[in-house]
Hints:
16% helix, 3 helices, three-stranded antiparallel beta sheet, eight-stranded antiparallel beta sheet
Amino acid sequence: AQPVAFRWVGYEPTPEESSIGFPTNEPLFIEIPGVRIRTSRRLASFPSTGQVVPSFSDRTITVNRKNFIAALKKLDKDSDDTGVEFQMSAEGNGTPCLLMESGSVDMPKPVTTTVHAECNGPNPPQFGLNCRYILDIAKAVDDEWLKIGMCGELDPFKVVSENGAVHVTMPFRV
């Protein structure tokens, strides 16, 4: 076992009444009077990045990053639901836009906003993304234009910035 310093909050047991262990190839355990915490170690294999991150996108939605962030913040602020439904649409003058809608069962009317967008490839179906996840991605990218790549409505969505950083989020069924 290796020595580790812990800061106890509210109760500081004496060394005689507590123990912390890091046995080799075993779970961590912490014991104090009346409490025993034991972790379990899971050995697992995870898929390679290539199996999770799509290598291509058959369609890309391009939006102005600042406008997209402002629209997402509005949805996040005005709705208590983190899910946002997205759908390519057209404004009255025919300008393509991304229609975004968020709501919950407690709200009589969903919160809706649009942002000008271009879609390369087949028009995507209606899809859903977690508002806060896609907002975090949009904030992390410094590019003027945000390009969201996708294949199918339930395949991972990929945002690749000009500096090569790849951001991935999973959609949900709407």
